[in-house]
Records
---
Amino acid sequence: MNQNSSDISTHAKIELVNYLDRLGKTDLAQEIISGLQSNPKRIPSKFFYDAKGSLLFEEITRLDEYYPTRTEKSILKSIAPNIFKSLKDTDIVELGSGDGSKMLILLKEVLEDNQESITYIPVDFSQSAVEGSIRFLSSAFPSLNLLGITADFLSQVHLIPRNQKRLICFLGSTLGNLNPDEAHKFLSGVRKAMDDGDELLLGVDMVKNRNVLNRAYNDSKGVTAAFNLNILNVSNQIAKTNFNSNDFEHLALFNEEESRIEMHLEAIREVEIDSPYLLNSIVIQKGETIHTENSYKYTVESIKNLFQSTNFRIKEIYTDPNKWFSVIHTII
């Protein structure tokens, strides 16, 4: 199905909404500026995902070095029949939905007679990602109801409408972008948005050999570097900064003490950043970094502690033979 945004929005079984508008462009710009004025400097990782960033991340997921996506998909293929075969009368809410390829694996197991009772709700910061997944899945499952939501799901999960019981999917190890306090706060918010009978499927990356981790975030083709540098272009679009990506280099390393991969952009020369949202220029010294992302790695113990502290009951922890990745099935 070759649809543009207008075609999607007028399809009988499809609705598109944008909650980012409620935040306002000034609020988003100020979030970037505040990060650049902090010490150390940072840009929140959600700003990776403009249209170009979303495409670059999809390319990352296909790289040989990047194990998380293919490993998680292998787990989903093995557990999908057990969880989705009898699913009906359910809102499937996917936070950080991306290209919809993981949901395809899961929805294939829903009985055809039950598909009309299912509403799939992809929620993503990238409008292009939401529209892409809607096109993809509406073609694969014509009887499925679809509600595409562009939103900051970290702060706007409470705005997602509810019509029936929920299965919330938060896959791709996106939880790892949050520090422990943020992860606790976020999951507590998700828990408040759930009722008795609701379920959660959550993907997390596990602690493993540092060489495997370092290769995954420093690929030989430089796609991750391009993805990281693109956040500067997004800053230029939203906060009207004057970054030149040629002034920075990609840096990714494993912080063993914090159990996380860190991504940074390191200035290769002194640069002066201006914006209409700034009273004074921001000077970034040669060798200074902008912190763009954390990716925390979990153990079974840390998973159990997090879910216990946020009042979820773990039904099952599924993993791969190497124990590199886990998908946690929880219930209320």
---
Amino acid sequence: MKKTLFIAVALLLCGSAATAQEEKPAKFSLYGFIRNYAVFDSRVSKAGTQDLYFYMPEGESLAADGTDLNATPSFRMLSLTTRLGLKVAGYQFGSIKVNGAVEADFYCMSGSVAVFRLRQAYVGLGWDVGQNGNLLVNIGQTWHPLAADMPHITNLETGAPFNPFNRSPQVMAHYSVNKHFTLTGGILFPMQYLPTGPEGKSMNYNKYAMIPEAYLGVAFKAGGFLGKVGVDVLTIKPYKTYMTPVLDQDGNPVVVGGKVQTEVGGKANGLLTNVSPFVYLQYTKGKFQVKAKSVLAQGGEHMNLLSGYGIAGYDQVSHTYSYTPMQDWASFVSFQYGKKFQVLGMLGYFKRLGTTQDLDGALWLNTAADTSIHQAFRATPTVAWNLGKLTFSLEYNLTAAQFGQGQTNARGQYEDPGKWILNHRVIWMTKFNF
């Protein structure tokens, strides 16, 4: 009995020692920056975060004397988006390598005061696979794969709506077959950046569809070249219920104030699946880098693109809605040259292509910009001085939008593309990294 007990204790101690040897402690590091902006705009614009997150100029608003009320310049100085993050790296348990990050910044406004909000919070699990491969699985909120590669720009929106902008809770796997090819796939949930619809912007559309947003892509890297292709698939259920007229005792609709009164009749059927492919190219040599991305977006408003969807039909027997996505083409080309003194900039182009089917009901579009915008472009020549971790930059942002006029056709396109409206934005940024 004593011998058996001794062997058991010895095995337990050996097992504990082996476990202790398998576990490596984590290393923690703080990072972030202090950032300040001074901004001039030549006219009223659609923008968020005290007008720092810039989308598009506002269209004309003509007074009785013909004056455009939106052609009003503005200037402001803003101490927003200062960021603080904590990185965790180096932890290992057995063959599992673990890293992670928690990141927040002063972004959301409470009156005139900026308050802390969560940007990223994720854990990464890594394994060595085979002789040359490895697998990394990120779990938590981080950048959407379509938004991860951003143009060279100092403005807060980093190219949106010409470039997707989205961070979402996700489970995303990156499998590096070798040093050249990486396969990426996983599921996401739109929580912070939301699709629109009959309830306005809401996570309910994807939640009640019961089908997670999905991404699948491949990347190739060799020398200074990086190329990616991928596709994002989002399935939503815009209507959860259908409405029926309220009837009186004689079976006639009840009318109050000239409107037929309605009530919830039951659960509505019908899903919409949006498919958004993209391609990304990047080349780096010495101090020079050039990037290009093109996205054919269907209902990409949850990625801050100027898209949406509408009703294509309704079956009154099965209470099933059918939907049709708006298609938009969003692209950019950007470059950067230099180290201490840098020259950089972006050219962006957006065009609304119309819905894939004829509309037979409401059309919901991203309200971040005027829904009548037919096409738009942006140019952002910028110079920056990098003094170690201290950066000063001056950016000129020319954004032009063409606002459709008159009637729309069955695909939601304006018959008259309309007039071009320009906004001239000048941004001075001071930034200290730590």
